Amino acid sequence: MNYASLDHFFMTLGNKQRVRILQLLAKQGTMGVTAIAETLKVEQSAASHSLKQLLLCHFVTVKQDGKERIYAINEDTVKPLFEQIERHVDKYCVKGCAHWSRL
Amino acid sequence: MNYASLDHFFMTLGNKQRVRILQLLAKQGTMGVTAIAETLKVEQSAASHSLKQLLLCHFVTVKQDGKERIYAINEDTVKPLFEQIERHVDKYCVKGCAHWSRL
DNA sequence: AATTCATATGAATAGCATATCATATGTTAT
DNA sequence: ATAACATATGATATGCTATTCATATGAATT
Q: Which of chain B's residues have a Cβ under 8 Å away from the Cβ of A87?
């Protein structure tokens, strides 16, 4: 992998599973790896791999709590970012992106 | 390909070449396909493919001008979006994302 | 209408990211 | 120290995406 910052940023988001995790964390606040994996019905290993990449781009933060590592979304930038993105998606993509016809 | 809107949005951005095109259009205003391809040193065909996907997510707009199709960035949502994203990248990723060590 | 310029499309290969499996590391309790 | 729980890591095979090449479509000019 050899990405500049911005590319790495988008690359990390360009994956359903990682976006699901972010959405889950945005909703639930904080969660451990096992809880995330169970909720999204993915392997623990897969969740861990995804979280690592999210961590590298600082989309999420961790803190150790006993045996568990509790992940949280980066409230500072990611939350407002997602709100703005959803504005774009709502406005332009709800009907648009789904249908590859016309244009 | 079977993506929900939000996934499709990110998927489209999760590619260097498409991001380069958006950055170019943000900077230059409007450009035709050949000009884009030459500037970014990619094949005309590749540029066209990329632009189609950007169009499907409404990141860009087109208008026909003679033989040419002039592409422009979606000023309404994409520009402010990129500004906010760059805030995140500058703040968290300049040093962070590049180095996979620590954390 | 034929030619040239500009862009789009389709198909196939090449390239890369992800999912998976097995295992390692780390933490706490007994 | 060992066992049990929680998470991380590494390697590999699979699957998906992008690039490429060849060609088609569209527009304007002669």
A: 77
Give the number of domains in chain A.
1
The more confident residue out of A57 and B98 is A57
Number of H helices, E strands in chain B: 5, 3
Residues of chain A above pLDDT 90, percent: 62
CATH of the domain at A36: 1.10.10.10
- Spatial distance between the Cα atoms of B36 and B70, rounded to a whole number of angstroms: 10
For residue B12, the enclosing domain spans 5-74
What one-character DSSP code corresponds to residue B63? E
Residue A93, pLDDT above cutoff 90: no
Find out whether B14 and A14 touch, Cβ atoms under 8 Å: yes
Say yes or no for a CB contact (<8 Å) between A92 and B98: no
Chain A residue with CA closest to B11: the answer is A14
Q: What residues of B are in contact with residue A5 (Cβ under 8 Å)?
A: 89, 93-94, 97-98
- The reply to whether B82 falls in a domain is no
Residue B94 pLDDT: 61
Confidence of residue A4 (pLDDT cuts 50, 70, 90): low
* Residues B95 and A5 sit within 8 Å (Cβ to Cβ): no
Instruction: Please determine, for residue A76, whether its predicted confidence score (pLDDT) is greater than 60.
Output: yes
Q: Tell how strand A30-32 and strand A68-73 pair up.
A: antiparallel
